[in-house]
Amino acid sequence: MKNECYIVRDLMPSYIDQLCSDESRRFIEQHVKGCASCSHVLQQMRAELNDGEKVELPSRIEQKKPFEKISNLLKAQGNFSQFLKASFWLSLLITIILLAFSFNNFIPWQENQQEAERVEQQRQEMMDKAFAALPVEGLPDKTALQTVFDQYEEQLQHIAVFAKEDVREISSLPAEPSAMFPIDYEKALLVVGENGEITEPIVPNEYDIGTIVMASEEKLVQFEYKNAYLKTVENAHQTKYYSLKVWELFSLPLAFGLTTLFIFAIWSYQKRIMKPLRPQVG
Length: 282
Ligand SMILES: [Zn+2]
What we know:
Elements: H1 3-16, H2 22-34, H3 36-54, H4 58-133, H5 142-151, E1 156-163, E2 178-179, E3 190-192, E4 211-215, E5 219-225, H6 227-242, H7 246-249, H8 251-274, H9 277-281
Antiparallel strand pairs: 1-3, 1-5, 2-4, 4-5
Zinc ion (ZN) binds at residues 2, 4-5, 8, 31, 35, 37-38.
């Protein structure tokens, strides 16, 4: 740094405030043109002084007070707006996650429903076929009933036909395939099972979900599911009577979805209210 530089820098504050003599002004301007270092210092000093101007005079602070109140309120509103915005996105995220979970549960739920429906339809189908194989009068034809049994040998243990008058002790005989406590096979007109023979002694299945009974005018058909198939029957039963409803499956994401909508409504209402105020203050 040259000697001249020291003088120039001493003069700089009064130069910026335009308080120095014309001679000093010319001297400084000439020097600054040729000295990058002083030119830089001058720029910095100017910038600093400009910033300093922004520091308010006490009188101006008083004047600005009412505006600042609005401004602070706006800042608070701005924070509230930020809060609403954050809440909205968080709530939306939770809704999406819960929805994903519900959909994930919905697939097996739907499969269970379809399986339950299939089991029920098949139950009706088995009964229809068994009744179709029965003669209007007289004893049932074993071969015809065996044919029906063979179609469902994966599922069935036995099909038995009873004369209605032989099972009078059962008060209400269903006209639809219904799960019932088994009727003793000793009273049956005919029983068919695997290979057309029943090797083991017939013990009624005491699991009433696994025994299905249906009565017509004259006859009554009872069939028992195979033990291996009981799990499927049990699941179908559980699904039919105890499974969640669709809306229950989606109740959580639904609740959060509504909350998200609610937050969004407040947020957009607040944004709309805030809008016309801004230009007045700025
Ligand atoms: Zn210099």
